[in-house]
Amino acid sequence: MTAKSQGPIAVVTGAGSGMGSETAKVLAADGATVVLVGRRLSPLAAVKHEITAAGGTAHVRAVDITDATAAATLVSWVEDHLGPIDVLVNNAGSSSPVQNPQYIDDDQWAGVIDVNLDAVFRLTRAVLPSMLVRETGTIVTVSSLAAVTPNLLGGAAYGAAKAAVRNFMTFLHTTFRNQGLRAITILPGETDTPILDNRAQPPSAELRANMVQPVDVARTIALAVALPQRVVLQEIVVAPTRQRDVAADLEISRWTGAPAGARP
Question: Which of 5, 143, 144, 253 is catalytic?
Answer without folding.
Answer: 143
